[in-house]
Amino acid sequence: MMANEIKNPRAADYGIKIGRFRAGRNNALTDVSGVRVGHSTVVFGSGKLNPGKGPARTGVTVILPARGDVWKEKVQAGSFVLNGNGEAAGLMWLKEAGIIETPIALTNTLSVGTVQKGLVEWILKEHPKIGISDDTVTPLVFECDDSTLSDIRGMHVKEKHVFEAIQNASGGPVEEGCVGAGTGMMTYEFKGGIGTASRIVPLKGRRYTVGVLLNANHGRRHTLRIGGIPVGQLITDLKPKEYQDGSIVIVLATDAPMDSRQLSRLCKRAMLGLARTGAVASHGSGDVAIAFSTANRIAHYPKAPEYKLRHLSDFWCNELFEAVADATEEAVLNSLFAARTVIGRDGNTVYSIPHYRLKDLLSGSERLAQW
Length: 371
Known about the structure:
By secondary structure, the chain is an alpha+beta fold.
């Protein structure tokens, strides 16, 4: 690390300010009260790829979407798929029912089944009647491809790593970059991975929080933009020797009382923030967003045929749409700023974005005068 670089850097540390709304206390998904995030990172070996044996640069990230038991008291949810080259276990039920009732997990492409099994095992321990006198369960697992850095065929993420991520889950600051599911990911041909951000939205005497956490593994260098500046066309070196189209998974949380339809609309606006950084949803990319609201809890087995829910008027959604686009843009940048250089299988090196060069490139721009 150079003398003028910041330890554990984020975009805001370098003066980048996106949008008019202020960030939450931790500028993270966990600023939505009750939401927790945990990681389990799997790193071992180096040198030549030995399929099934390593090296490994992978992991799992788990999001617990609300306080208490989301199986018994579900949260409303929505989704949007911009480009569908990816696996999203459990998404069909989310779209049909408009709810989330399990933890949400992110991992690599070939470990979806293992991670889903790990979540099932954890949920069965919590709820011994599932599959007997209670319903069965379909946990949510989303993936990105880390095969350019990791021995993906080895499926080195195990059920124990899911349990570990859940055990590690907490509120407060969220570790970003090369951690958990983001360990082997790259973004715009720089090292990427986990990124998060949040915004506080005041509405007529009320105050709502919107949080974003994403696993960034997408984009070609030449399309990368920061604050509208074509950074990817200005930094043309520091490229990995191997690169392929990747994906991005975006998880949104809010305490605003939005229903499933509105939350799906929120997911679409996250893609606008993603596009600001240069994403074009390439043919080989899986671009998926899910959103949930903690404002209403829905009983698994309601005692009455009707129940009341708080509901935000559509006419008051615009500020939330704006906030989620801003937070998504910043979360992508945070994934880039936080990630460190990683040497993966076969010596493939994915470099961290050079912060000191970015500052020099952008300091003369009137659009980023604060630099």
